[in-house]
Specification:
- The complex is a heterodimer of chains A (151) and B (302).
- With 151 residues, chain A is mostly beta strands.
- Chain A folds into 2 domains: 2-95, Aspartate carbamoyltransferase regulatory subunit, N-terminal domain (Alpha-Beta Plaits), CATH 3.30.70; 101-150, Aspartate carbamoyltransferase regulatory subunit, C-terminal domain (SH3 type barrels), CATH 2.30.30.20.
- Helices cover 14% and strands 39% of the residues of chain A.
- In chain A, strands 2-3-1-4-5 form a 5-stranded antiparallel beta sheet, covered by helices on one side. A 4-stranded antiparallel beta sheet of chain A has the order 6-8-9-10, with no helix packed on it. Chain A has a two-stranded antiparallel ribbon with strand order 7-11.
- In chain A, strand 9 (133-136) and strand 10 form a beta hairpin.
- Chain A is elongated.
- The two termini of chain A are 33 Å apart.
- Chain B has helices at 14-29, 50-62, 84-92, 107-114, 130-144, 162-171, 190-199, 232-238, 280-298; strands at residues 40-45, 66-70, 97-102, 119-124, 151-155, 177-181, 203-206, 218-221, 257-259.
- The longest helix of chain B is centred in the last third of the chain and has 19 residues, at 280-298.
- In chain B, strand 3, helix 4 (107-114) and strand 4 (119-124) form a beta-alpha-beta unit.
- With 302 residues, chain B is of the alpha/beta class.
- Chain B folds into 2 domains: 32-128, Aspartate/ornithine carbamoyltransferase (Rossmann fold, 3-Layer(aba) Sandwich), CATH 3.40.50.1370; 131-284, Rossmann fold (3-Layer(aba) Sandwich), CATH 3.40.50.1370.
- The chains are: A mainly beta (151), B alpha/beta (302).
- Chain A binds chain B through residues 110, 112-115, 117-120, 136-142, and chain B through 8, 83-85, 103-107, 109-110, 124-128, 191.
Chain lengths: 151, 302
């Protein structure tokens, strides 16, 4: 795996996000705000993956993420792996974890929820990490992975 | 409980439920007092609910408090496009407590986070209506002399009815056995049944009224509304199956009582009204005492 990553286009320092489901690539870009950064970035998608069928990969030069920040992508890419690169070497590998609370990012599934009718940041408690079920702090309805819409 | 908003029935612990019910019993003995003298309470009804509003206002008036507010949003600046945020911020300047009802779910929680004035949720869409649940519990305790170990039957629309969901959550703290009687389309959602499984409480599901109601301590009736059915034929087929009639009560326990959050349409036949087991009108009166207890304890006056 290490060889494969380096083969696509090696970066000197930064972060490689691997094992993103191909259909979640643009959601990950949006959640992490990668469309607004000014660093060298490579996106690859529809690459073959034994685990995911088709996967995407993101290579970011000179960027490191804080744990809270990167954990946000766990909702759309629960199996994502991070490789931290220093001087062309993988110095650390990280996995993402589903957080206890989700603030912003996800839209509440309930059209009658106040968050879908006034300008309010959404807020959820994660009540199941294995199935990804979010309970809205406001309307108390459950948003599951199947109905999850990223803001 | 002082200065603490009451938005969801889960905001209170079991001990706090008991405390409110005990206080309500004292107000029932002595419902006219002046402990709210000098207090101004806003009743903001963004959608009309005459019954609930009058119950709150009666509770406040009998304790010597003053009420300001509106009874539906057409008579407020909401029709001019004002946000909940602005309305709550402004009204907070004028009162000690806000009672609000709003059609959007989560609106009361949101309101409680934008002001220091405590909020009592008087219904937020299909979500929560905690004072109704507390008055249901008060009625149960008053008629059965206890809350523990009762057999509670819930009848009608168990899928969408917020009153049955909140009552289930609250009563589940008192070792209740639940019986659910509903059409297939309006069954108790799985989430609540899984919760009962998890905490080890028994529940039984039935499609029809049968002799089984002879076991009931409380029958909690709700409306079966036509618009809840995806198939109108299904509605026609079962609309009469969930109507309680006087003759059906023959073999029920002498202490059994029938509750209903009201308004009733036809799900309790009027011939039941004269049966001493019919309790729904007194249940509504209990709402006044329970609301007096909630308001006074939130304002720290007792």
């Amino acid at each position: 795996m290490k060889d494969k990553i380096l083969e696509v286009s090696a970066i000197k320092d930064g972060t490689v996000i691997d094992h993103v489901p191909a259909d979640s690539l643009f959601k990950v870009i949006s959640i992490l705000g990668l469309d607004k950064i000014d660093k060298k970035t490579t996106f690859g998608t529809n690459l073959e993956s034994h685990r995911l069928g088709k996967k995407a990969i993101i290579k970011l030069s000179d960027i490191q993420f804080k744990k809270d920040e990167i954990n946000k992508i766990s909702l759309v890419a629960p199996q994502a792996k991070l490789n931290i690169i220093k001087d062309y070497q993988v110095v650390e590998k990280k996995v993402v974890e589903i957080p206890d609370d989700v603030i912003g990012i996800v839209k509440c599934v309930n059209p009658q929820c106040i968050t879908n009718n006034e300008r309010i940041t959404t807020k959820f408690k994660v009540i199941s990490k294995s199935e990804v079920k979010l309970k809205c702090h406001y309307c108390e309805k459950i948003t599951d992975r199947e109905h999850m819409e990223i803001i | 409980m002082k200065n603490k908003s009451l938005v969801s029935i889960d905001d209170y612990s079991k001990d706090e439920y008991i405390k409110i019910l005990d206080l309500a019993a004292k107000f029932e003995q002595n419902p006219v007092q002046d402990i709210l003298k000098g207090k101004v309470i806003a009743t903001l009804f963004f959608e009309p609910s005459t019954r609930t509003r009058l119950s709150f206002e009666s509770a406040i008036n009998r304790l010597g408090g003053k009420v300001i507010g509106f009874s539906d949003s057409s008579s407020s600046s909401v029709t001019k496009g004002e946000t909940i945020y602005d309305t709550i911020k402004i009204v907070s300047n004028y009162c000690d407590l806000i009672v609000m009802r709003h059609p959007l779910e989560g609106s009361a929680r949101y309101a409680s986070e934008i002001t220091n004035v405590p909020i009592i949720n008087a219904g937020d869409g299909a979500n929560q209506h905690p004072t109704q649940t507390l008055l249901d519990m008060y009625s149960i305790r008053k008629t059965q002399d206890k809350l523990e170990d009762l057999n509670l039957f819930m009848v009608g629309d168990l899928k969408y009815g917020r009153t049955v969901h909140s009552l289930l959550m609250a009563m589940s703290k008192f070792n209740t056995t639940f019986n659910f009687i509903s059409p297939d389309e309006l069954k108790m959602p799985d989430g609540y049944k899984l919760y009962l499984d998890k905490i080890g409480l028994k529940y039984y599901e039935h499609k029809d009224f049968t002799d089984i109601i002879s076991r009931a301590d409380i029958i909690y009736m709700t409306r079966v509304q036509k618009e809840r059915f995806s198939d109108p034929i299904e509605y026609e087929r079962c609309k009469n199956a969930y109507i309680l009639k006087n003759y059906m009560l023959e073999n029920t326990k002498p202490t059994m009582k029938i509750l209903h959050p009201l308004p009733r349409v036809n799900e309790i036949n009027v011939d039941v009204d004269i049966n001493p087991k019919a309790y729904y009108f007194t249940q509504a009166l209990n709402g006044v005492f329970v609301r007096q207890a909630i308001i006074s304890s939130i304002l720290g006056l007792i």
